[in-house]
Design brief:
Radius of gyration: 17 Å
Order of helices and strands: HHEEHEEEEEEE
Strand content: 35-45%
Structural class: alpha+beta
Number of helices: 3
Helix content: 10-25%
CATH architecture: Beta Barrel
Number of strands: 9
CATH class: Mainly Beta
Largest sheet: 8 strands, antiparallel, barrel
Shape: globular
Distance between the termini: 50 Å
Strand order of the largest sheet: 1-3-4-5-6-7-8-9
CATH topology: Lipocalin
Length: 138
């Protein structure tokens, strides 16, 4: 009897789990500026190069990067919510921020934290990926 109760509870919890929606990503990212607090690329931390960069996301799809030289790019969110994909684009000649240009899976999103995992290839398991970009609200 207890096994059935626990199994039912487990299934109910899974059914209620929420994915980060594109609408939520749009809303959260445009609320203030974000600091890069972790950046792992090709399994190597490159945070030192980006730790003084702040990103501001506008409703119009522009990103303003505040760094030593300043830069701008664009962003958009895909329509799917499982997973939600954040597309970042910085021109190649834009500071060293062109490394951020990619499609990123929104792995975790709260009002103060955004963890992005690089969306490398079709069928890629982003949950176990080491490459990630973590943004923290300033």
């Amino acid at each position: 009897m207890k096994i059935i109760l626990y199994l039912t509870l487990f299934v109910a919890i899974l059914a209620c789990s929420k994915h980060t929606t594109p609408k939520k990503v749009n809303k959260r990212l445009t609320e203030g500026s974000w600091a890069i607090t972790e950046f792992i690329d090709n399994e190597i931390s490159i945070l030192k190069k980006y730790q003084n960069v702040s990103l501001g996301f506008s409703d119009a799809g522009n990103i303003n990067a505040i760094s030593e030289t300043g830069a701008s790019g664009s962003w958009s969110v895909g329509n799917d919510k499982n997973p939600t994909i954040l597309y970042l684009n910085f021109p190649e000649l834009t500071d060293s921020l062109h490394v951020l240009t990619d499609d990123w899976v929104v792995f975790k999103l709260t009002k103060d934290l955004c963890i992005l995992k690089r969306n490398n290839i079709s069928g890629f398991n982003y949950e176990t990926s080491i490459d990630q970009l973590t943004l923290t609200k300033k």
